[in-house]
Amino acid sequence: MNIGMYNEMNSPDNDALLCPRCGYNYLHHERIIVYNRNQDEEETEIITIAESAVTNKVPSADAKNPSLRRHGLTITFTCEGCSDNLSEDFELHIAQHKGNTYIGWGEFKPKTTPEPEDDYELF
Prior knowledge:
single chain; 3% helix; globular; disordered N terminus; disordered C terminus
């Protein structure tokens, strides 16, 4: 993977990240969450970066950290190719476990249309 300057990334053979839903390569970072946790600590420091940075400490069991025991990272994306038609953005997770680093897409759900209510009749 070539992480070069901006002008190098515009070449057709770059290693751009692709949308896991539609395969398009115009993805936008919307939010970054850093999970700062020493091994098996009971609390995790969560740093959320969106329009500003917010830091909280929560019990590790409630942190939603992609790493079960250590530090983790989540990057939320939108895609120019398909996000307008879907209700949720999607996430890329980075986790570590016993010296290994794992990377993968989180779950995402397609947009659902609410069912009409049957409490009234239309004339």
